[in-house]
Each structure stands twice: as C-alpha cells, then as structure tokens.
Amino acid sequence: MAIPGEVFQKYRLAGKIAREVREEMRRTVREGMPIIDICEKAESLIRKKGGKPAFPCNVSVNEIAAHYTSPPQDKRTVPENSIVKIDIGVHVDGYIADTAVTVCFNPEYDDLADTAEEALKKAVEILQPGLSLSRFGSTIQKTIKTRGFKPVSNLTGHLIGRYLIHAGKSLPNVFHVSTSRVKEGEIYGVEPFTTVAKAAGRVENGEEAHIFRYLKHKSLKDPYAKRLLNHIRKNFQTLPFTERWLQGCVPPSSYETAFSGLLSSKALMSYPVFVEASRKPVAQAEHTILVVKDGCKVLT
Ligand code: MN
Ligand code: MN
Questions:
Q1: Which terminal CB of the chain, N or C, has fewer other CB atoms within 10 Å?
Q2: Mean pLDDT for the chain?
C-alpha cells in the first residue's frame, strides 16, 4: 500500500534536511576537529532547517562501527589517518530520515569506503516489492566480497516507523535464511557496513554508551529523576537521545544521581558503542528509501 500524501511530504522534508546536513558535514569534517563540534553542528543545522534530530549525531571512528556520540564536555578529536562514519537522523513530526557517510583521512581506506557506497547503490537498484530478505542479504554480501572486502554480518538495515528507528524488520547485509519480503509503502534505512577481508566481520558491544532511549514508565522517589524522565518522554518520546540534550534540566549537583537512577530502574535503555570484534576499520553508507510499486525512491 502506498503511504498517504501528507505523510510522504513529511518524509520528503526529513530526507531533504538529512541529505543537506550529511553533505555539509562531509565537507566540514577534518583531522583534529573536536568530535563534540561535529555532533553539535550537525544537530543545530537540522534544527535550523526545520527538522529535529531523530537521534544524536553519530561520529564513529576507525574500528568503532556505530553509536558513538559525544558525551557532555567530550575532549576527543578526529584522529589523523582515520576513517570516520557520520550518521545523521532527522524527523519531521516523527517521520524519520536516517543517512550516513564515511569520510576517509587515510587513502588506504578509500576502497573500503567506496565499497560501502557501491553496496548501497546495489541495494537501491534491487529493492522492490516482493524481494526476499535472503536474496537482498546475499546480493549485498556478494557485492562487497567481489571487491575484496567483508560485510559486517551483525549490523543491518531496518524498517522505519513513526518515532521508531528500528520498527522490527531487519535488512541483512549477508545471506540470512528468511521468508520475509519487502512490501510497497515500507520505509527502510539501508546501511551496508564494510570491513577488511581479514577482519572478524562482526561487531561487539564496547564499554561506553552515550546514547539512550526511554523504555518504560517507573514511579521514582527522586524528584529530579522524575523531572528528567518527564523531560525525556516529552521531548524525545521513543527516539534515542544523549546526555548533551539534558543539560540544564535539573540542578547540576543532582544530575548524576538522577540520571543513574533512571538507568538502574530500567526506565531508560542505553546503546553501547559497536566495535569491530577484531578492531579493524569499518566503513558505512546509508540512505532512507521508500518502497514504491516498481522499485524504491531514495529520500536522502
Ligand atoms: Mn543511521
Ligand atoms: Mn539506520
């Protein structure tokens, strides 16, 4: 089924903003740049253009495949000779566009990044109603292997829903036994991740987590924890957020206790950074697409 016109317009606007911000960030990022400046610039550009961040801007360096965003007062900078994934999410009234680009400061990784782009191009070519997810995964895997690289097997694209980044269905980047098929009117974040042939080709959870989301209501004794949770529900709903966006919400001296209380009560969940298991460099390319009658339309 096709999506209603007014919903499509919101997706189209979210997609346009995401594309413009991605391209601006691609041009801006430099070695030595503070990562927090990259995150804040991307997020403020999204707002300036009339969207809202659907999740904190991810800036993931080298073997970190995804889910790094700056914590408050982050001191980290873009290392020399690095490979950097910038992943941007925009929503308009809950309708999300999700897009990413890889910026290389080491010519040795150029082919790795190009291969992620090639795999994404292939995905856009083949996505259409009725395509099986097994077929999709094996085609992406083959595209990447043919160029001498390896897909990251446990990172996938995903169906997108209103206020939901991952709406249940996954688009695998490797062969995967599945009877599920792509349907008209579905919106997907399509995101092949590539790594080098000798890598493990999968990610594991790292030690840190700087991205969180609301999980469920809890009755809390700490009034500041309560205030924080209300703020989170009201402003981000079920979308991921970062602690940088909570500054000033409660007195600084009460913040740490309140926030850790929300985590330990499981009112919130955290997204740990994803690290390539053999610590090899990873590249990513991502578009958000709408499945239409005879193929797909790239929104980003
Ligand atoms: Mn993304
Ligand atoms: Mn995504």
A1: N
A2: 97
